[in-house]
């Protein structure tokens, strides 16, 4: 039988969608039978015969379940286990204590009546902003900005993104799940801000979706104020130009955050709502597994998988094919004019080069993950045959 003293250190959580084990800030999703056996063992109320009779399983199935639970429990509490993170070189910007203090004030925006009123307004303002920019400021391009404009946009975006992360933390705090720190780190090679709200696993799916929407919600509220200033200020002066830069950048980040095929807010919204753990990993191989008859037909996973490959194909056709041309322009300009002139006089080309670098790296990472998953699948098949 299971013999592990650390069974009393784990915390068992469940909601309407899932059964979870919490150990030192690591969450593990398990089956109902797995959860109920651990619950009885943890409460010292387990009786083998009664459990077999209540769950209507055979003695052989019970012994197999016990072995699985014992092995998984040893893995969960193992000192060698390390929490997997997609953020590297992370540093704290706001401590857990400070985040909770700020979130206590901002949680007001997630009261049911307030959220139902302001969230549609924020979304409508975002759509209205895009229409106004398309109709009245069609010739204004982010690539036409000077280097100082880029610096201004970057630091303004940092402030906006800090509020974005506070949106997640405040939503989590509203649902009585204390958020952790807000920090800065690197996703692959790209600098990002993040909010640690991993504890929301204990919430139901609708609450988790609201937490995931919290960042875009706060960005939308900021956009309402920016749109107001743009409409009130009718003169095309430097103030209008700065507002256009900020609004366009904010809208771009909001739209980017909602893309479900990138590990961002949109991805977690979809993953949490449909309660699919490792959605990205499963979607890459789902079509191949379905064709081989290894998995059952699930319409959402099939649609998501097709969407995933369509998104990658679009990026390849629309962006990857332009990377050689962008690189040649970049190299030619630097060789003839120097890097300092590029930075001061042609920031648009530098921006295009950085964006091309981003797309190229993302494509390589996606290809590597796909090959790795296929290799793991093949390896699992060989081990099963043996």
From TrEMBL:
Transmembrane segments: 113-135, 147-164, 184-201, 213-232, 238-259, 299-327, 347-371
Keywords, ordered alphabetically: Hydrolase, Membrane, Metalloprotease, Protease, Transmembrane, Transmembrane helix
Keyword Calcium attributed: no
A single GO molecular function term of this UniProt record: metallopeptidase activity
Top-level lineage group: Bacteria
Name of the protein: Peptide zinc metalloprotease protein
Lineage: Bacteria, Pseudomonadati, Bacteroidota, Flavobacteriia, Flavobacteriales
